[in-house]
């Protein structure tokens, strides 16, 4: 008996940003007995193949779409095999050892709520809240009336450019999930201090963030490349909190990691659709945008090598890995992503240097 109900799969796939409607349609065709008679995902993928082919769906898409929603820690399937589409890399699932010279003074989920926190821990936890903001609008209720999200104007422009119904459905699902993230952070901040969402919102209006300057050219394609890289960056940031010493953040992180996987998959699928329908000029354009613009900025977004904040957050168990370690893990995953699209990841050191220089120049210009 396959451990996941066929109808539940469809109900979860349709509202996801990386929905592939051909897979959903194939689910309608497969007899319940055939589905239920499979013991493993491999066996199921084999049994599904004729139904997938009838709808133009791909077997590998079926496998990762199942793994993304139903592999551990989210469901009964074993660990995901299509790693860049689904799952959490091992380095984020164990509490990081202090092999980087930083002594950890708090373990995973050690503090459950805002009461009785040591003073220095409280200070660095609040710094973390402000650093990540979970920007957009951490406001709801009366306070949020007439306050727009900083993404809603962009989102509206992008969704209108969707090349087809699938693109529009994906983007609408994506915007919906981002709002849910804002809600989850609003709840977390409010529980810590009812005034905190308001204070963070004020801070977000004033602070300069180099990564917010990673502009797209306003087209659907550029936004797809951006999602493939930027939402993966969000995934990597949230991976760091899965073992957070602040239990409420660890709980939220697991949900966000899952969603952000879907957001970068959406970018991936939109880029893949473009590449498959374009010629070599289109492919060269995507490679150029990566090389010259998006890749260096995303390398820089992990921060400097000797960040004092990163060191203190690791000490408090609020982050697990150094900026450099995280940046390299991201680059390793991006190499697999781009390989699978027949694109090439830029050289690590060169892209990082160019990105950090560009971010420093932007900061100087903004000062
Ligand atoms: Fe996202």
What would you note in describing this structure?
The protein is mainly α. It has two domains: 6-70; 91-366, Ferritin (Up-down Bundle). The protein is built from 15 helices and no strands. It has helices spanning 6-13, 21-29, 32-36, 41-54, 59-70, 119-132, 152-159, 165-192, 196-206, 220-239, 247-277, 280-300, 308-315, 323-340, 348-366. Helix 4 (41-54) crosses helix 5 (59-70) and helix 10 runs antiparallel to helix 11. The protein binds fe (ii) ion. Fe (ii) ion (FE2) binds next to helix 10 and helix 11.
Count of individual domains: 2
Regions with little confidence, pLDDT below 50 for 5+ residues: none
Radius of gyration: 21 Å
Identify the overall geometry. Answer: globular
Helix content: 55-70%
Summed up, the helix count is: 15
Full CATH superfamily name of the largest domain: Ferritin, core subunit, four-helix bundle
Largest sheet: none
Return the CATH topology of the largest domain. Ferritin
Mean pLDDT equals 93
* Ligands, deduplicated: fe (ii) ion
Instruction: Kindly estimate the percentage of residues that lie in beta strands according to DSSP.
Output: under 5%
The termini sit apart by 62 Å
Run of helices and strands: HHHHHHHHHHHHHHH
In the CATH scheme, the class of the largest domain would be Mainly Alpha
CATH architecture assignment of the largest domain:
Up-down Bundle
């Amino acid at each position: 008996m396959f451990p996941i109900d066929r109808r539940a799969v469809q109900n979860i796939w349709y509202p996801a940003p990386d929905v592939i409607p051909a897979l959903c349609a194939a689910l309608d065709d497969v007899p319940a007995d055939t589905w239920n008679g499979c013991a493993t995902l491999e066996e199921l993928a084999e049994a599904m193949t004729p139904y997938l082919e009838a709808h133009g769906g791909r077997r590998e898409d079926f496998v990762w779409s199942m793994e993304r929603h139903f592999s551990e820690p989210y469901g009964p399937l074993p660990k995901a095999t299509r790693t860049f589409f689904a799952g959490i890399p091992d380095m984020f699932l164990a509490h990081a050892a202090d092999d980087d010279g930083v002594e950890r003074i708090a373990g995973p989920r050690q503090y459950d709520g805002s009461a009785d926190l040591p003073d220095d821990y409280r200070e660095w936890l609040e710094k973390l809240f402000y650093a990540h903001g979970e920007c957009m609008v951490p406001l709801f209720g009366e306070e949020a009336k007439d306050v727009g999200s900083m993404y809603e104007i962009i989102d509206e422009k992008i969704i209108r450019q969707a090349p087809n119904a699938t693109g529009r459905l994906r983007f609408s699902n994506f915007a919906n999930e981002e709002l849910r993230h804002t809600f989850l952070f609003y709840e977390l901040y409010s529980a810590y201090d009812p005034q905190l969402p308001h204070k963070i919102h004020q801070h977000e209006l004033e602070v300069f963030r180099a990564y917010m300057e990673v502009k797209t050219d306003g087209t659907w394609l550029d936004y797809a490349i951006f999602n493939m890289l930027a939402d993966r960056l969000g995934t990597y940031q949230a991976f760091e909190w899965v073992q957070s010493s602040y239990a409420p953040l660890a709980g939220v992180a697991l949900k966000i990691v899952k969603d952000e996987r879907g957001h970068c998959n959406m970018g991936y699928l939109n880029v893949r659709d473009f590449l498959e329908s374009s010629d070599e000029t289109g492919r060269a354009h995507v490679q150029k945008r990566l090389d010259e613009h998006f890749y260096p900025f995303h390398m820089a977004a992990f921060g400097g090598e000797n960040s004092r904040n990163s060191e203190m957050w690791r000490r408090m168990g609020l982050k697990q890995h150094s900026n450099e370690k995280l940046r390299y893990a991201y680059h390793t995953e991006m190499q697999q992503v781009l390989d699978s699209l027949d694109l090439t990841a830029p050289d690590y050191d060169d892209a990082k240097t160019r990105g950090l220089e560009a971010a420093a120049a932007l900061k100087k210009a903004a000062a």
